[in-house]
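Quick note —
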Amino acid sequence: MEPQKKLAHVTHLPIRWGDQDAFGHVNNTVYFRYMEQARIEWVESLGFKTWLGDEGPVIVHASCTFLRQMTYPGTVEVRTSVGRPGRSSFQTYVDMQIDGELFAAGTAKIVWVNRLTGKSTPLPESLRALLEAE
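Predicted structure written out below.
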């Protein structure tokens, strides 16, 4: 059964020459960097600082399915969708496309954490409202 999710953010990232490995395609670790950059842009666009404060998002699980090889030059459209929130966490879903074709699909579970205690804490109400909005 397909999880309930809604589109939250779209960004376009250039494929850099250095993103390629010795095989001449974008290295698998770079796909996670693309997802990370899109996630940071989205969280910051909501007004949350990802590097300051006592609370913030932490990734507890990430995965990626590689469907096609990306190569330089190019621009990756990274489409981030979000699932329904739990008390302190929510799931993100990422499609990475080039010219409308799907090259990779990933997920990341985000937990809101109190950085002083290292423990999960309830999602900020403003974030919860955005995640729950239909």
